[in-house]
Design brief:
Order of helices and strands: HHEEHEHEHEEEHEHHEHEHEH
Structural class: alpha/beta
Number of domains: 2
Helix content: 40-55%
CATH class of the largest domain: Alpha Beta
Strand content: 15-25%
CATH topology of the largest domain: Rossmann fold
Largest sheet: 5 strands, parallel
CATH architecture of the largest domain: 3-Layer(aba) Sandwich
Number of helices: 11
Strand order of the largest sheet: 8-7-9-10-11
Radius of gyration: 20 Å
Length: 249
């Protein structure tokens, strides 16, 4: 149950439109619902303002559909991350309302148009085109969480003039998500140019010594830009989640 839904239910009880016992029955599913393969947290949206998100990695289509069905029965939207195309197709066969974003590997069950609730814009900027798969996850999650998103692609430090041309977009954003592989220098440069929080996302893009994004991660953690914080390698979801919370403050 989401906060607005609970507030509406309590208002109905106050006005005498819903009997207290009926309201109690609706709330009986809190704080979680047990399914054959999971304990689905239906209380998360009340605690932190965003509903539970399903990690698709390691789950079968049947398990994802089971969890998604429990969340939908509780009146919540459903977002599943890291869902492979064949798994998404199988879930959609069980839940026809499911919408699949192949670029971000995101599965969504909810309204086609999500109302904008963020106070400003989240800018997602990538160092290279190869970073787009991770960036698309961040973009899709941020939009499904009710944010206006601007995207700036392929403006890495190998050609700083490209980044400088995008400064108006970055400076107007309320939060910036900077996605980069290789040596991971982009967030530090962006952090030195804007007076906004910069959430750095290291990607596993790079040749051998890059160690699957570990070098970019360490470079970002060692950033001299004080407004830069860092999430895990390839974690576009985590970056969008934190950016959403910051954009609502």
């Amino acid at each position: 149950m989401e906060r607005e839904a609970l507030r509406a239910l309590l208002d109905q009880v106050r006005r005498g439109e819903v009997e207290p016992d009926d309201a109690l029955a609706r709330l009986a599913a809190l704080p979680y619902v047990e399914t054959p393969n999971a304990r689905v947290d239906t209380h998360r949206a009340l605690r932190i303002g965003l509903p539970e998100v399903v990690l698709g990695t390691g789950k079968t289509a049947a398990q994802i559909a089971e969890i998604a069905g429990a969340l939908r029965a509780a009146g919540q939207t459903v977002l599943a991350t890291r869902v492979a195309p064949d798994v998404a197709e199988a879930v959609a066969a069980r839940l026809p309302e499911a919408d699949y974003d192949a670029a971000g590997r995101l599965l969504w069950l909810g309204p086609a148009e999500v109302p904008i609730v963020g106070k400003g814009t989240i800018a997602v900027v990538t160092a290279g085109t190869a970073d787009l798969p991770v960036a698309h996850e961040a973009i899709g999650v941020a939009r499904r969480f009710g944010n206006k998103v601007e995207v700036v692609v392929d403006v890495g430090v190998a050609g700083l003039h490209r980044l400088l041309a995008a400064l108006p977009v970055l400076r107007e954003a309320r939060v910036v998500i900077a996605v980069a592989g290789m040596e991971g220098a982009l967030p530090s440069v962006v952090g030195g140019l804007v007076d906004r929080p910069v959430i750095a996302v290291p990607t596993s893009v790079g040749y051998g010594v890059s160690q699957g994004g570990f070098v970019a991660l360490l470079g970002m953690l060692a950033s001299c830009a004080a407004n830069v914080s860092v999430v895990n390698i390839d974690n576009g979801f985590g970056a969008a989640y934190v950016a959403t919370l910051a954009n609502r403050l």
